[in-house]
Amino acid sequence: DQENKSGSEYLKEIQIDETEEKEDVTFQSLGVCEELVEACNRLKYVKPTAIQRESLVYTLKQRDIIALAETGSGKTLAFALPVIQNLLDAPQPFYALVLSPTRELCMQIAEHFEALGVGISLKTTVIVGGLDPMAQAIALSKKPHIIIGTPGRILYHMQNTKGFNFKALKFLVLDEADKLLNMDFEKDINQILDIIPKKRNTFLFSATMTNKVHKLQRASLKDPVKIEVSSKY
Ligand code: ADP
Ligand code: MG
């Protein structure tokens, strides 16, 4: 780990090799609550991955992070655990919004949340393009805690679905930010950022750092910790 010199745009910068092992680190020792540690054990998540290990100490304490890590590094659990753990303290509808670029990725994220949420009556909804907006409006009227979706369709419902708003939103997750921006979702995301509360926590995950990702970081994160996991260090 490297403590960053003052003058950086980041509160702290951490660069770590994904193969570096820290034997004694567990979900419990990172501050994950008992219910979620049990859920992890049940799902055979025995040891945190590098990105989970390096980010959870910050995300559980409601710091904004930008995390750069490759596909398959376990980013979903890295954001699902702190979102659910904070929700457990103060359950409320429309608590968290997760933006991801494709229907398939959104479905996978929802599966993670649902698997972790067994036994704590966590309600999640997937809102993606290509599916019936009326059925989605009905799903939203049931006041889910976690909404996972593609930016275009989320924005559509913010603008057109009565009774649906994010006035109480506490967490925004931007998943696969580089892909979101390459798929021309930038305008939709910026409109969403204009509508949702400024007082919230934001986690930005990306495989790569690009100019567009950096611009999105500046538009969406407050005093972020930057965590970079790769095999090149
Ligand atoms: P990414 O979003 O970084 O591409 P995912 O979150 O989809 O990665 O995770 C990749 C795979 O690793 C998934 O099948 C997930 O269930 C599994 N996984 C995540 N964290 C752990 C862990 N701590 N221990 C074991 N498997 C894990
Ligand atoms: Mg992912």
What's this entry about, in short?
This protein is of the alpha/beta class.
Describe the 3D structure.
There is one protein chain. The protein has 233 residues and is of the alpha/beta class. The protein has one domain (12-230): 3-Layer(aba) Sandwich (Rossmann fold), CATH 3.40.50. Helix content is 40%, strand content 16%. It has an 8-stranded parallel β-sheet with strand order 1-8-2-7-6-3-5-4, sandwiched between helices. Strand 4 (124-127), helix 5 and strand 5 form a beta-alpha-beta unit. Helix 6 (151-160) packs across helix 8 (186-195). The longest helix has 15 residues, at 75-89. The model has no long low-confidence stretch (mean pLDDT 94). The structure holds adenosine-5'-diphosphate (ADP) and magnesium ion. Residues 75-76, 175-176 line the site of magnesium ion. The site of magnesium ion has 4 residues, from helix 3.
What characterizes the major β-sheet?
8 strands, parallel
The beta-strand count equals 8
Termini separation comes to 11 Å
Would you list the SSEs in sequence order as H and E? EHHEHEHEHEHEHHEHE
What oligomeric assembly is this protein in?
A: single chain
Q: What is the average of the pLDDT values?
A: 94
Task: Output the number of helix runs.
Answer: 9
The CATH architecture term is 3-Layer(aba) Sandwich
Nearest-angstrom radius of gyration?
Answer: 17 Å
Give the CATH superfamily: P-loop containing nucleotide triphosphate hydrolases
Bound molecules: adenosine-5'-diphosphate, magnesium ion
- What low-confidence regions span 5 or more consecutive residues with pLDDT below 50? none
Class from helix and strand fractions: alpha/beta
The share of residues in extended strands comes to 15-25%
**Estimated helix fraction:** 25-40%
